[in-house]
Amino acid sequence: MGRLTIGPPWEGIMPKLKSLEDLQKIREQAQRDLKVRTETGTKIIVGMGTCGIAAGARETMHAILAEVQNQNIDVNVTTVGCIGMCSKEPLVDIEQAGKPRITYCNVHPDMVPRLIEEHLLKGQVVEEWAMGRVSAAGIGQG
Amino acid sequence: MAAAMAEAGKQRTGRVRELSLHILDVLENALEAGATRVELSIIEDPEMDKLTIDVQDNGRGMDAEATRRALDPFFTTRTTRHVGLGLPLFAAAARRCDGDLTLESVPGQGTRVRATFRHNHLDRAPLGNLTDSLLAFLLSERGEIELRYRHLANSRTFQFDTAAIQAELGEVPLSHPQAREWLYEYIAEGEAELRGPADHRPPMGGDYA
Prior knowledge:
The complex is a heterodimer.
Chain A: E1 11-13, H1 20-40, E2 42-47, H2 50-55, H3 57-70, E3 76-80, E4 92-96, E5 101-104, H4 112-121, E6 130-135, E7 138-141
Parallel strand pairs in A: 2-3
Antiparallel strand pairs in A: 2-4, 4-5, 5-6, 6-7
Chain B: H1 2-13, H2 19-32, E1 37-45, E2 50-57, H3 64-69, H4 86-96, E3 100-106, E4 110-117, H5 130-138, E5 146-153, E6 156-161, H6 162-169, H7 177-195
Parallel strand pairs in B: 1-5
Antiparallel strand pairs in B: 1-2, 2-4, 3-4, 5-6
Helix pairs in contact in B: 1-4, 2-4, 2-5, 5-7
């Protein structure tokens, strides 16, 4: 596998507003509250397989990132591959410590504010969008 | 067949699929192949009328037969679904624009996907939202992955290596909320700078996106 060759000299772009030094501060801050975070952590997981991408999962993830930033909610957002329920994509799982993991299906960007508001802020599962839940007892249909 | 699949893809999303979605798809393939490092280059060269998207990973790779079949829309290594579709759609998009997609893979070493397009072809979809695609990839749960990214356009380069970013963060993961927000803004700013102010735009007033 060869390497790409680049012809003309290209001017390098360095973001000015965001510097690598910022990361030091983030690191120090994060180390201080890492323990708290892992114990009370909330996780949002978005399916990002080919099926998810085709169904608009990237846009759904964008909406989630924007909403948690706007609402200033501390939550980990991650992505996973296809789990075999392609027709229900975009799939979004919400996991909160001590609570069952809820899977929401066909989550489109316009549904995200309500999902965050009701599930994360009020602690109420949005039953009409929930597909199933995984608890210590196993899988049940919601 | 490929054209029919591309048409189906178009209908599914209701519009011509932006190229950054294909890029995300290829990046996701690298994750599924267990890669720990990915190099992504995007080179926009309107003067030579060429756009090149090059993705190399160090995942488990494929043998010659699997490599050939990876471009067949009805082949997939997955067991959860019976069609693949990702790469064949990307190849169809490239060929529609007088370009091509090549796939090279060596078992145990990795895979390289290289797509070329005529930059100014009427049917060429815009690159679209690269920031969202890179974030979706970097926030994967499927293990730590390093990305070296280079985007050349408008006689400028925006590049970064997440290995250097991770070195600054130490044990704090990229998915940590504050690190994630920093990363998002860093990439969005770099991409925006690449487009440049109006006076750096091409004389035709065209958009490099």
